[in-house]
Amino acid sequence: MTERTPRQAIALRYDGQKAPTLTAKGDDELAEAILAMAREYEVPVYENAELVKMLARMELGDSIPHELYLTIAEIIAFAWHLQGKTPAGFELMPAPTERDITPKHP
């Protein structure tokens, strides 16, 4: 008989100033409720069981560990991109212009 791994979910809050904090976590029914609320408020959902397992060890209100800053930053940046958002003060770099790389002969 195989033991079923419970479905887990976490929620993070990011205010744009400090490291994201853990605002919700739960298994099975609570996990489904967290995901349902995210869908209701059109919050992007990223599924990664190993990352959730690491973050679920934290206490509510804890900031994410420094070792996960880059991983979480990439997820937040992608979620913002999907929603058409950009951080305050962020400016897109103009696309590089094409350069003529044909050799010039005298």
Describe what you observe in this structure.
Required for formation of the rod structure in the basal body of the flagellar apparatus. Together with FliI and FliH, may constitute the export apparatus of flagellin. Keywords: Bacterial flagellum protein export, Cell projection, Cilium, Flagellum, Protein transport, Transport. With 106 residues, the protein is of the alpha+beta class. The chain has one domain (8-82): name from scop (3-Layer(aba) Sandwich), CATH 3.40.1690.10. Helix content is 32%, strand content 12%. The chain has three helices and two strands. It has helices spanning 28-40, 49-55, 69-82; strands at residues 8-13, 21-27. Strands 1-2 form a two-stranded antiparallel sheet. β1 and β2 (21-27) form a beta hairpin. The chain is elongated.
CATH topology, by name, is name from scop
Please trace the helix and strand order, writing H or E for each element: EEHHH
Main sheet properties: 2 strands, antiparallel
Number of helices: 3
End-to-end separation: 80 Å
Helical content class:
25-40%
- From the helix content, strand content and strand pairing, which structural class follows? alpha+beta
Low-confidence stretches: none
User: Which CATH first-tier class would you pick?
Assistant: Alpha Beta
Beta content = 5-15%
How big is the Rg?
Answer: 20 Å
Tally of distinct domains? 1
Name the CATH homologous superfamily. secretion proteins EscU
Mean pLDDT: 86
Global shape:
elongated
Strand order of the largest sheet: 1-2
